[in-house]
Amino acid sequence: GNSVTQMEGPVTLSEEAFLTINCTYTATGYPSLFWYVQYPGEGLQLLLKATKADDKGSNKGFEATYRKETTSFHLEKGSVQVSDSAVYFCALNARGGSNYKLTFGKGTLLTVNP
Amino acid sequence: DADVTQTPRNRITKTGKRIMLECSQTKGHDRMYWYRQDPGLGLRLIYYSFDVKDINKGEISDGYSVSRQAQAKFSLSLESAIPNQTALYFCATSDLGQNTDTQYFGPGTRLTVL
To answer: Which of A28, A57, B22, B93 lies 20 to 30 A from B12 at CA?
Structure first.
């Protein structure tokens, strides 16, 4: 079956530090890959996505590249801000008949201190 | 106004009570989903619906039922609530078109079963 493994948190950084949250996946075929962000007290918001190998998704200074050879989709940001404090979820959506289903990782809590 | 709304936002109830959580959307999407989020487990799919007449079980449907009253409304019921159904519940929607793999989430309902 499909699965997503992301690094366990919590991750605590100082403002302007470099962020990497690792995500690897197992899936049949060629899934679409996503990062969702959940700010305190809110629902999940789509942060970025990539639909095929070597695609780079980017948004709000965050980036992630779809690496088929390593089955990875690591999230990076060069300089984090306090406002980036949130829970980050890596997810995949399988293609074809089961493309309704998002499979999520367990989430990584990021805290950015001033 | 939010595109996906959920009511109530918070609910405390007792074991054995019947509870209904409601979801409404103004995005015009055909597909709707119910997830639950538990700490350290990510999100898990309870039920999903592709249209008013098409409702399907997700990975953890036991103890839950749903009703798709209209394209814009999808309700989740707990017929007889139990403490291990204490969780954060999210409704989500997706389109049928090119971006069908992207889901849009409501703000969540925090349910506590005593």
So the answer is: B93
